[in-house]
Amino acid sequence: MSRHRVHCVAVLLLSLTSLAAAVESDSLRDELARIFGPEKHYEPETFGPARWLLDGEAYTTLEPSESVPDAKDIVRYESGSGKREVLVEAKSLVPPGETKPLEIKDYAWSLDRARLLVFTNTKRVWRRDTRGDYWVFDRESRTLRKLGGVAPAATLMFAKFSPDGTRVAYVHENDIYVEALATGAVTRLTQDGSATSIHGTSDWVYEEELDVRDGFRWSPDGRRIVYWSFDSTGVGEFTLINDTDSLYPTLTRVPYPKVGTTNSAVRIGVVSSNGGETSWMKVPGDPRDTYVARVDWTKDGDHLVLQHLNRLQNTNDLLRADATSGEVERLFRDQSDTWVEVVDELTSLKTTGEYLWLSERDGFRHAYRVGGTDGEPRLVTRFDADVIRPLGVDPEERWFYFTASPDDATQEYLYRASLDGSKAPKRLTPRSQPGTHGYDLSPDLYSLIARYLIENLSEIE
After folding, report:
1. Pairing of strands 303-310, 290-297
2. Cα 286 to chain center, whole Å?
3. pLDDT at position 66, please?
4. How far is residue 422's CA from residue 417's CA, in Å, rounded to a whole number?
5. Which one of 185, 187, 198, 276 has the largest count of C-beta atoms within 10 Å of its C-beta?
C-alpha cells in the first residue's frame, strides 16, 4: 500500500473516531434533540392550515396554544380589522380518557361553523397522508366524538360534511359510508369494496397521473353523492422490493399497468346519501382506455360536469351528465397533436351558463369561456403570457383573478382580466413588490391572505 493511501486511511479512521467521540458528547446530543425533538427548534414558522369562512369577512388558522404546551388553538381573524378570537381551544380537543389534545393535521368547518371536523393520527398512502382518524367537535355542546364506529384506528379517508352539516361521508376500506352526527348511525353506500373493487378513492394510475385521490362529492342539496368506481381486475402487478425496513427484504405487489396493457375499468356513479342503487353515467368510450379526470356537480344539483380524456391524453372533452338518467352530452373539446392538460379548477359562470377553461391551444396557457351554444371558446386572458394559477371570479362575474409572470419565469404576480376579454389583463401586485407572491383569495375576492397584501383591491380598475 502506498504512503498516500496509508495516510488517507489514517485520516479517515481519525475522523470516524472523532465523530464517534462527538456523538457521545452532551453538546451534540443536545443539538440533535433540538433538530429532531418535539420542540423542533429549527423548523421554519408556518401559517395555517387557513380556512376562509363563508362570508369572506374572516378566516381561521392554527396558532400555538397559550394554555396547553405543544398544542394548537384554532383562531379567527377578521380580514379587515385583524381582530383576533380563539374559536376552539386546544383543551377542548382532548378525547375522552386522554390527557393530550388531538394533533391537527387538517380541519374543516361545517357551513354554519357549528361543527369542526379534525383529521389526525394520519398515515401515508404512497406519497400523502390520506388515511387517519376523524373527530367532530360540536361547538354548542362542547362535545368531541370520533367517527367510524368500530373501524380500526387510522382507516378513514376523505371525510366531508354534508352541506347542512348534519352528516359526514367518508371512505373506509374502499367503500363509502355516511354517518349521522346526531345519532351516530352509519349507512354504507357501496357494498363490494375490495383490493380490486375501489369506490370513493382511486387506483395507482389516477393518483399518479391525474391527482385523483379523494373520489367522491356531495351534491349541493346533500341528497346524493357522486363517486369514482374502479375495477382493477386484470391489471398487471409490479413487485417492489423493500430492503430497508427490516432485516430481510419484503415484497409489495402493486396493480400497475404498463404501456399498452390493461387499465382499470372506471365508472362514475350517483347514489342517494340515504343508501340505495347506484345510477351509472353513460360516459362514452371503453372505460379501460379512457379517463374521467374530474367530476363536479352543477350548482342546481341535477347535473354533473366531467372531464373525459382519451388514453393518449391529447383530447379532453367537457361533458355534462344528467345525474338521474345518466345521459351525457359534450359541451366542448380541447384537443392537441401532443398533449392537453386537465383543468383543476373549473368555474361555472351563472350569468352565461359557460365555464372558465384553461387551455394551451394558442401556445400560451390562457383562460377561455367555453360551453356556449355555438361551442366556440372565447379568449379571456388576452396577452402573451401563461396563467400560472387561477384564483377565481368575483360574485358579479366581471373579473377573473389569476397569477402570471409575463416577463420573468422566476416571479409570480396577481392579475385581473375582464371576463368579456375586451381588455388586456392588468397587474394588481404593486410594481414596488418584485418577487414571487402566493395568494388565497376570500370567497368575495375583496380580501386576501398573501405574503404581500394589496390595499383597496376593490377600487383598482
Report:
1. antiparallel
2. 28
3. 87
4. 9
5. 198
pLDDT in tens, 94-110: 999 999 999 999 999 99
What does the buried/exposed string (b/e) look like for 321-338 if buried means 16 or more CB atoms within 10 Å of the residue's CB? bbbeebebeebbebeeee
d(CA 311, CA 258): 12
Q: How far apart are CA 350 and CA 258, in angstroms?
A: 42
pTM of the model: 0.87
Q: What angle do CA 177, 296, 185 make, to 5 degrees?
A: 15
pLDDT on residue 48? 83
Angle between the N-to-C axes of helices 3-24 and 26-36, in degrees from 0 to 180, rounded to the nearest 10: 70
Residue 9's pLDDT is 41
d(CA 57, CA 52): 8
What pLDDT, in 10s, does the model give residues 439-456?
Answer: 888 887 766 544 444 443
- Here the cell at position 412 is 409570480
Whole-number average pLDDT of the chain: 90
How far is CA 134 from each of CA 102, 129, 199, rounded to the nearest angstrom? Answer: 10, 13, 19
Please state, in angstroms and as integers, the Cα–Cα distance from residue 398 to each residue in 376, 395, 421, following that order. 20, 8, 10
* Span 20-39, average pLDDT: 66
Q: Determine the pLDDT at residue 144.
A: 97
Q: Say if residues 235 and 254 touch (Cβ distance below 8 Å).
A: no
Q: What is the CA radius of gyration of the chain?
A: 26
Q: What is the arithmetic mean of pLDDT over 327-334?
A: 97
Find cell 464517534 and name the residue. Answer: 20
